[in-house]
Amino acid sequence: MNVITVVGARPQFIKAAVVSRAFVAIGIDERIVHTGQHFDANMSDVFFEELGIPSPTQHLGIGGGTHGQNTGRMIESIESVLAGDRPDVVVVYGDTDSTLAGALAAVKMHIPVAHVEAGLRSFNRRMPEEINRVLTDHAAEILFAPTEAAVEHLRAEGIAGPSVKLVGDVMYDACLFYGAKADGVSEVLTRLGLQRGAYALATIHRAENTDDRKRLESILDGFAASGCTVVLPLHPRTRGRIEAFGLRVPGNLRLIDPVGYLDMVMLEKHARLIATDSGGVQKEAFFHRVPCITLRDETEWVELVEAGWNRLVPPGDPGAIATAMSEASGRIGREISPYGSGHAAEEIAKHLGEQFP
Ligand code: UDP
């Protein structure tokens, strides 16, 4: 049995890392195609090195264009990889242009697609990620859902039965495995001169927050008004927008380059609170039991809001952001365990191994 995995963006490297280890453990032959969507050393290479992901057999070098340009070029290149190297199954992750391109290229060549993190919905069709995930789910033959809510979303769209497998969340697996490792390896707190529990950690990268000048300025103003030391590992898109819009960076904000996963886990674990628009970081806050505010109007990870670990805050309202940050400090939610038992990657490998012996 052999698999081609298509990845291209940071969160996909982290998800693929744990599944690749599970593939190796049961002897599944995997080749990795990297589309090139994220290509900087600190957005890509560091994850392959640090997380021990097998080197990509193909690097397509596609990025920097519009959604249409990138997706189109990726489909064309992935199709020629698949034509030369017909795998039993193509595995795609999450909701980026690389996910959709991998799914479309494979399904039209009658190669089964397995979608890891299937069934997530924000119900906001203006998000490019929402379009990517809906279309990928409808192209996929095997849908690995992380939560009960995701299974329900699929059912509501007519996707049900044995093709849908509730396996848990591979990000939880990653957090358990690499979280334990981070303590012994990461020196990020010393390097940045940070005291445990004395700073907020923030990440901002969604187009809806970065591409609108007023929104981005409002978020920075909210951080300023919070009075906390806010550590912000800057996604390249966000850095580009701050510079292009000529926005003033408040003095309590520590802008740093994106960090590797082990440093990120360390920063998350010891933050007083986390403010983010990232899907992955919302969950990681919960895994480390750190209170979180999400700078979006909706979230795919609704269970964390319902249980009180996370709170949605309108990104266009600096006063609301500052208030939510001060109220978040020390807030504790209800204990829940919606993301499985930390064995999602093993479940995925096992199912694929059985389906394609
Ligand atoms: N992350 C990281 N370094 C950083 C910022 C984020 O390793 O400087 C990790 C983070 O811990 C999470 C993942 O990247 O596991 C989230 O990726 P991102 O926010 O880009 O995407 P999303 O989860 O929103 O799809």
Structural topology:
Layout: E1 2-7, H1 10-25, E2 29-34, H2 41-51, E3 58-59, H3 67-84, E4 89-93, H4 97-108, E5 113-116, H5 128-139, E6 142-145, H6 148-156, E7 164-166, H7 170-185, H8 188-192, E8 200-203, H9 207-210, H10 213-226, E9 230-233, H11 236-245, E10 253-256, H12 261-269, E11 273-276, H13 279-287, E12 292-294, H14 302-306, E13 310-312, H15 318-328, H16 344-355
Parallel strand pairs: 1-2, 1-4, 2-3, 4-5, 5-6, 6-7, 8-9, 8-11, 9-10, 11-12, 12-13
Helix pairs in contact: 1-2, 1-7, 1-16, 3-4, 4-5, 7-12, 10-15
- Give the averaged pLDDT, no decimals: 96
Shape: globular
Measured between the Cα atoms of the first and last residue, the distance is 6 Å
The radius of gyration over CA amounts to 20 Å
Sheet bearing the most strands, described?
Answer: 7 strands, parallel
Give the low-confidence spans. none
Major sheet strand order: 3-2-1-4-5-6-7
Bound molecules: uridine-5'-diphosphate
How are helices and strands ordered from N to C?
A: EHEHEHEHEHEHEHHEHHEHEHEHEHEHH
Helix content: 40-55%
Q: Per DSSP, what share of the residues sits in E-state strands of 2 or more residues?
A: 5-15%
Structural class: alpha/beta
Number of strands: 13
How large is the count of helical segments?
A: 16
Labels describing this entry:
357 residues; globular; binds uridine-5'-diphosphate; alpha/beta; 7-stranded parallel sheet; 15% strand
